[in-house]
Amino acid sequence: MIEEIKNRIKEHEGYRNKVYLDHLGNRTIFYGHLCDVGDPYEEGIEYSKEEAEKVFNQDFNDAFDLAKTFLYDPDKHHADIFGVCIEMAFQLGSRLFKFKNFRAALEKKEYSVACMEMKNSLWAEQTPGRCDALIKVVEKHK
Question: pTM to 2 decimals?
Fold first, then answer.
């Protein structure tokens, strides 16, 4: 399951081995890694796939932990639902916690409401393809 989630994230994020600006103008590298002030990555330099995988795995672990906190008790949810939350955490970071109605719907297992909350968000407007793909995962559990 974890490898499937990782592969889906990589597919949605895409890969670049140089620093670039994402659609919001943030310095980014590899699989959607936002460059922090302390990151050593410089524009114009190509970095190795090994470095990309190391950074991706750390970012994934951070997203995994964030999704666990977001769901309160991830063990009571289907692995697909947890996977959707991991991917949202990977992309949104702590902004995932702004999805209060989405979280409440998941806790009640009201998946059609959860899908509506996903669709009616700024996130859906900014990345509609990814949002639609994740909605399809949640819809399987209606």
Answer: 0.92
